[in-house]
Amino acid sequence: MCTGYFVVLVRRRRHDASESFGPMVQIVTIDLAPRGIDLPADRIGVVIAQPWLELTVAEPFVCAAGAVDRQLAMVDRTLDIARQAPHGKAKTHFTILPEFSVPGLAGAARIDAALQADSWPVATVVIAGIGGLTKPQYAQLLAEPHTHVAASNAADQLQADEWANCIVTWVKAANGTVERWVQPKIWPSWPENNGQYQRMFRGKAVFQFRGMHAGDAVPYRFASLVCFDWIADAGAHKVWRWLLDAMQQEAAGGGAMLPLTWLFVIQHNDKPNHETFLRELADFFNPVTCPSVRRQETCVVFANNAGKSIPGRALTHGCTSLVFSPNVTFQRPDSYFTYSNGGPRTRGNNLVHPRREAVFREKGSCVHSFVQVNPNAVVPGAAGHTLPIENPEVYPVNPAETGPRTPGATVAAGVKWLNDSLDELACLSTQFPESAMKAAVAAAHGANENDFRGKPASEAVRVFAQASPSFQIEKAGGARFDKFADDWDTPETHALEHVVQTLDVLRTAFSDTSAAPGMDMHGGATIRSTAVDILAVRGNSHIECVQHANKFMPHARRKVLVVTRDYHNTRLGNRAGSFLRVGQTKITSPIRFNDPGSNRIHLGSHELLDCYLKTSTPAELEASVYACIN
User: In this predicted structure, what is the pLDDT of residue 583?
Assistant: First the structure.
């Protein structure tokens, strides 16, 4: 073993003569102080990859042959972003790549080469999950210079039919020396345990790294676990408990409190919000357990792979997040950039208090860059309105695929929600495949979708504020506020569907229809030489919709076509027709500046859809819509 090691073997006390101890987990402590790893005490720069993986269907679970080059490019891209440190700190102190995300020895070599380069800053750490390794490959990894492993995890401990799932921690010392520590996963998940050809080697040790914060005598410590190791019973108890017990024994011997500053859990977890996974946090942060191990400032970092190959919503994976102690005093923003407060809307449960966590909204393939704030850096009282994360930016894994959800910058919650909803919005061409104009309306839909994806945050919010009477909520005192984006749900989805499908039909009929950014309304068009703004509203009744539309009417300078849709998408009845001035205001009616309603033309969504379904060409559709408004 190299200098700087000491090993603590922890065994729980026997409660009765029949109890079996099971295997022990070794806690191997690495002293980073002699290596000059003086991490800041208040804020650190972090980059976390969240890649889409394509793995083989059987152990040892490696990157599929056709995806290796893409995964290597992902490793290079992540390291490049970390090297640039866009989060604003002087350097990226921790770079994290999740479980299985680094393709074998070739991927490890890429990380070695990057850290050996002069351009990679010193006093930094890279933590990466390496794809499954056969015994010969594992031995080759350990044979590289400056590579360390616990004796219980040496290559000769593997049987011929065993493979290893490893986390590797690289450290670049102040003098430029690069070392790495290899830690095999301790407990297999079900797919790993359900082996057909080989068994997963069960690791027997966890590295914990200790050092001193820059500029003071305050110590820090961190350790890493691989996915299922977070919840697995490894012999007498959980793996994290072996770690805390070892620190508790060390603290007792020295008569002092020891901090655990970071615990990194790298995952390939299709159910990151599973109750079993999240309930473990309460036990981990319980101050009665190992009271000499200080966890008030601990940041648990869950770094997961992506749930899909492109940005967007996903039913699995994602939810890369940071979780803190119940005692933290961070502020809880209503709807901040890039990350949410978690909670039931994000997690599907309330097992983690929203003041305790930050969950990155993007579940698709991306790279996260941010500054993590140490809870100890929060100033008590009103002056300490501090968020747990600063400068949270989202980058595409492929630089050529920059978009509104991966712009290489922060992402407003409204922009993320709007773009995710556009992904799932059904086009009329699929809802009514028998229509003769399905190709034309599909083209119009694509153009409208592109327009909406370009909208900045303020306009994204305005889309829903104009389209839905229920978008505002009343708070104490009677004041009304727009819903925050993390509270948007079915009403906003329905409103967006109405807006886009309205514009799809109108764009098919009137080719210059546009929903481009910068418009006051949902869109605009020229209808037989008359410039018209377009506003689409969906509510419980047509009357409610038009009352809502009246709030957004500009001064009578140009015509506004208001398309309303009630709860059941019914036709405009006699009462509604009279209220909406149908038959009085037409496209050809003059605008009277002393009559605020003279610039408004009203059309029901049902009638507009009828026009689309009963015509066969854009020209016929244009004539049919024109007849309805004139």
Answer: 41
Q: What are phi and psi of 128, to 5 degrees?
A: -140, 145
Can you name the residues that pair with 357 across neighbouring β-strands?
323
Q: How many whole angstroms separate alpha carbon 454 and alpha carbon 307?
A: 24
Interval 489-501 mean pLDDT: 97
Return the CATH number at 260. 3.60.110.10
- Judge whether residue 91 has pLDDT over 90: yes
Q: Which amino acid is at 623?
A: A
Q: Are 232 and 216 in contact (CB under 8 A)?
A: no
In a domain, 564, yes or no: yes
* Least-confidence region, from 76-90, 227-241, 292-306, 601-615: 227-241
Q: 88 and 371 in contact (C-beta within 8 Å)? A: yes
Would residue 118 count as lying in a domain?
yes
Label each residue of 357-408 as H, E or C.
EEEECCCECEEEEEEEECHHHCCCCHHHCCCCEEEEEEECCCHHHCECCECC
Same domain? For 533 and 441 the reply is yes
Quick check: is 520 in a domain?
yes
Question: What total of structural domains would you count in the chain?
Answer: 2
Whether 406 and 519 map to the same domain: the answer is no
Q: How many CA atoms lie within 13 A of 120 on its CB side?
A: 29
Structure tokens at 309: 């190959």
Kindly tell me if the per-residue pLDDT of 152 is higher than 60: yes
Where is average pLDDT lowest: 66-75, 310-319, 353-362? 353-362
Mean pLDDT of the chain: 91
Last-in-domain residue among 411, 435, 469: 411
Do 486 and 505 have their domain in common?
A: yes
Lowest average pLDDT, out of 335-339, 350-354, 538-542, 621-625, goes to: 350-354
286 within a domain of the structure (yes/no): yes
Q: Are residues 214 and 363 in the same domain?
A: yes
At residue 586, the pLDDT reads 80
In this model, does residue 1 exceed pLDDT 50? no
Place of tokens 């990894």: 141
Please tell me whether residues 394 and 499 are part of one structural domain: no
Domain-terminating residue out of 411, 432, 449: 411
Domain membership of residue 62 as a residue range: 32-411
Beta bridge pairs of residue 179: 171
Q: Give the separation between CA 250 and CA 253, rounded to whole angstroms.
A: 5
8 Å CB contact between 146 and 177: yes
Element of type H or E holding 464: helix 457-467
What tens digit of pLDDT does each residue of 426-471 get?
Answer: 999 999 999 999 999 999 999 999 999 999 999 999 999 999 999 9
Instruction: List the Cα angle 194/308/125 in 5-degree steps.
Output: 80
pTM attached to this predicted model: 0.93
Task: Kindly state the percentage of the chain with pLDDT values over 70.
Answer: 92
Answer yes or no: are the C-beta atoms of 252 and 292 closer than 8 Å.
Answer: yes
Looking at the fold, whether 194 and 211 belong to one and the same domain comes out as: yes
Helix (H) or strand (E) holding 606: helix 605-613
State residue 332's pLDDT score: 86
Task: Check whether residue 224 and residue 332 sit in a common domain.
Answer: yes
Rounded distance, CA 420 to CA 357, Å?
A: 23
Task: Tell me: do 552 and 447 sit in the same domain.
Answer: yes
Local confidence band at 555 (pLDDT 50, 70, 90 cut-offs): low
DSSP tally for the chain: helices H, then strands E: 16, 28
Asked whether residue 578 carries a pLDDT value surpassing 60, the answer given is no
6 touches 253 (CB < 8 A): no
Structure tokens at 533: 């703004």
